[in-house]
UniProtKB/TrEMBL annotation:
It comes from Salix suchowensis. Belongs to the glycosyl hydrolase 9 (cellulase E) family. Transmembrane segments: none annotated. It is an enzyme of class 3 (hydrolase). The keyword Hydrolase applies. Its EC number is 3.2.1.4. It catalyses: Endohydrolysis of (1->4)-beta-D-glucosidic linkages in cellulose, lichenin and cereal beta-D-glucans. Residues 33-321 form the Glycoside hydrolase family domain. This is cellulase. The keyword Plastid does not apply.
Amino acid sequence: MASATTFSSMLQFFFIIFCCLGYFSFAFTSQDYANALEKSILFFEGQRSGKLPSNQRLTWRGDSGLSDGSSYHVNLAGGYYDAGDNVKFGLPMAFTTTLLAWSVIEFGSSMQNQIENAKAAIRWSTDYLLKAATATPDTLYVQVGDPNLDHQCWERPEDMDTPRNVYKVTTQNPGSDVAAETAAALAAASIVFKDSDSSYSAKLLHTAMKVFDFADRYRGSYSSSLSSAVCPFYCSYSGYQDELLWGASWIHRASQNGSYLAYIQSNGHTMGSDDDDYSFSWDDKRPGTKILLSKVLFYKDLHFTSTNIRNQINPQLCGIFNRNSWRKLLQNFNYINRIQTTIYAL
């Protein structure tokens, strides 16, 4: 009863919000949204680390972190700095890459003249993640920079003089969470580049599979392995099981390899797919995994009804969620359908 009341309250809240959007929609034009999209993607250029390209639009930024990894005999230049500091945190960077790729997969056809900038933002990260994943066998480099010392000195990355320590997860010090998220990012990006750069796409997917195997074979949380280097900054509070399901889901979507769906079916119940989840974030991937799987298996038409969903139910999905979780998923579909109907009417 409590959950039903909460759901009803949320529905009423969002209904009011969308009504307000409809009332004020006259104040916004398509150009406003185009500018917002351009600036959103431009933000990532401001976070770039490494040797900047000639077409860098934020010209007040310069090269930085060119020797990252050199003291460990690996090349870890590139990638993105975190929010307001000069640390390159692997877990949120990989998650950001996954979502950037997902946005292009779902909405790339509507991005018009920003699609190439969006793909460039993804590639800037995946180039770095590829190096981090392939530099040393059975090793994933997951962070550059000491966050405790970095946070004591706020400075431009071009001028930074704080230690550029390198952190990694290995077979002896595992990090299934950050490794599986890295696999998800590479797999999602492989879909983005499948048509425009098939060789790069294949490389991304192949590496994603290897990194996922590493994450699954040597299980453990990177928070336990790296301790104060990642906590309390980006501790994996939800554990690593959600990332394993998330990573397998993305590889399945990218490869259509049924073994990854079988993996989800076999491990879903023991890895928390039945647990309640209230937020989707760099830490907890369960809500995103459920949406991704639902789209892969039977989300055929945006204008669906709960009746035709039930008629199209793939038994494979029923093996992943319990009955209560499945009921919640159908409720969410009905909820999303109402929102879409409202949006189309604006």
